[in-house]
Amino acid sequence: MSEPKVPILAPEDTYKGWLFKWTNYIKGYQRRWFVLSNGLLSYYRSQAEMGHTCRGTINLATANITVEDSCNFVISNGGTQTYHLKASSEVERQRWITALELAKAKASRMQAESDDSGDDSTSPAASQGAGSRNSEVQSTLRTLNSKVEDLSTCNDLIAKHGSALQRSLSELEGVRLGGETSEKIRQVTERATLFRITSNAMINACRDFLALAQAHSKRWQKALQAEREQRVRLEETLEQLAKQHNHLERAFRGATVLPSSQSNPAIDSKGPVPGKGDVSDEDEENEFFDACEDVQEFITVPADPKYHRRSGSNVSGISSELGMDDGTTSLDEQSLASNPESPQSQEVVPVRKRRSRIPDKPNYSLNLWSIMKNCIGKELSKIPMPVNFNEPLSMLQRLSEDLEYYELLDRGAKCQSSLEQMCYVAAFTVSSYSTTVHRTGKPFNPLLGETFELDRVQESGYRSLCEQVSHHPPAAAHHAISERGWTLRQEIALASKFRGKYLSIMPLGSIHCIFEKSNNHYTWKKVTTTVHNIIVGKLWIDQSGEIDVVNHRTGDRCHLKFAPYSYFSRDVARKVTGVVTDKDGKAHYVLSGTWDEKMECSRVMQSSRGGENGADGRQKTVYQTLKAKELWRKTPLPEGAENMYYFSTLALTLNEPEEGVAPTDSRRRPDQRLMEQGRWEEANAEKQRLEEKQRTVRREREREANRSANPAEEGKEPADGAEEVEIASEPSETTYKSVHHDNYKPMWFERQVDPMTREPTHIYRGGYWEAKEQGNWDSCPDIF
């Protein structure tokens, strides 16, 4: 395959264009005109400034060029100059990167040639050619000295001729001539005097410059020589470290995987590995992921080739989980082919066409002071937060988005092995975070009693129901059931903590997944979501923490670790790693990927203690694994998603109006509907009306409770549905379980002790879908 052609810069060519440059946290990225010429990158506010005002210049010869993502890249010289730049498209960014790399190579080459020609002394590592370089330096110095002598001669001549001219003019003044002639002589004398003053000024400036250059020349030469010697030492040290690292890597692989004299025919038969030029890296193809920093608790290496040449009985025991190697039908294909209830064998039913767009997000400016000044003197629970911070979905709809990749549970329901099923469940837990990577808008807080149904039986085989079961603390219950053999239920309460620059959101509560055929019951909890740059700067979201997915029937467990983002980490961003173990702690699968892109798994053939030490001083576990298999990959966002709150294909349909839903359904919420239509001022007014209505209902419920036989529950609490600003202690799971859940009885869920985890939770009591079929919503409260 031929290499793509890239633009080549001629020596006199320049590269110009518009780029966005990061300025500060207040203004963010600003459009600037950049000019690349002679190894220097300069920028201006506009093209008109090129003739008189340069805003900054960086020398590419000593600069580092780093690509951050599809449009962003960074140029830094390792010192005080760092340019964070953003192109208008990925193609434009690649053009700039190509031009910058070519200019950098040329500038580095020219600097090296200049260094060689101007170096008057050599280090021991570069002793060859020292005589020729010294002779060139001496020749250059002789030329400079001759030029200095010429300048001195010119100085003497100017002084000599200037003095002679002054004397001649003075003699002319003594001669008695006519009045007109005397006036001419006087004018000539004045002009000669000006010439003498100007010449003296020029001579003095040249003399000062020459003295200054001679005084600093030796100092600069010494500093430059020290830098050259230091560079040579660093290059030698880096070369030694690279050789040591390569030697240790070879020794480690030979000790833990194969004897040093044995080759790997399974890999050799595949030919050279694409993208690898060194024969020593030929086995990198089967590596699951590179050995990384202390955030990773284990290391994976390719399994011994003997595991690829097992007998038929042994192979069947391995390949029954997650499919086999090339040439063998995967488990999913076999299941679909043999399942008489698969979609291919069923009668085709017309499926409703869902919407694929919503109105574009308006570009309204947000004045924080205009919001805060209206809150002076008000109670915290009554501070109205405008919809400018929101997205046109409620928290119940965001909770339903966990089912975006329901196919993973469908595949898990077909699995014969609980360990293989665990891999799909773990991938499902990670996939629920993929929709949050660009979603910086806050969902609407559901009103108490608000519901949301997601009926996808025809398209996907499942139906889901959410209800806001408590407001203090805010808690939502969720129940989903699929015709393909699985049930998902959860109750999630959100506790937030504002920490100055960022906001931490900690979900409390457990998620349950039950498979009907095997009766496997899985539980897990969610990780912490962090929203950065709350005050100034561009908002961005990170997920961090650990998840333990537990199969309560078999004792299998999957420990997932979400690595927090670190500016100094060399590892891939948003990384997730995990290990699937049985009840005895034996590892069977290794998982790896990112929560915003994909997850893969590799079957563990052998594990041992060894390798490098972790942060706590303990040796990491080394897993020998087979080739990785992809479990899940994120579906690309629809076209124009950046103008539609970065909604996924499923999210775009969640607030689509539907007939027959309950009067309490989130689709009927007026402030949310007005925001989706771009009428934000009306949405803010409607939001305040709903919150005040909920306060009135809350006060009436409290009065009824005070008249009952439980006076201990008296007291004023925050209003239902208000976007509250809470100042609370560090939340905990124990606090959440013991807190009182309002004086409210949910419509479709009832609070009871979970039989598996022994935790109090809200479980679906039934009746919703029957009420929908009958169209009987008489018992639903009027919350809108």
Automatic annotation (TrEMBL):
GO cellular component: cytosol; perinuclear endoplasmic reticulum; plasma membrane
Keywords: Coiled coil, Lipid transport, Lipid-binding, Membrane, Phosphoprotein, Transport
Name of the molecule in the record: Oxysterol-binding protein
Lineage: Eukaryota, Metazoa, Chordata, Craniata, Vertebrata
Intracellular or extracellular location(s): Membrane
Domain PH: 12-105
One Pfam match: PH
Biased composition (Polar residues): 120-141, 327-347
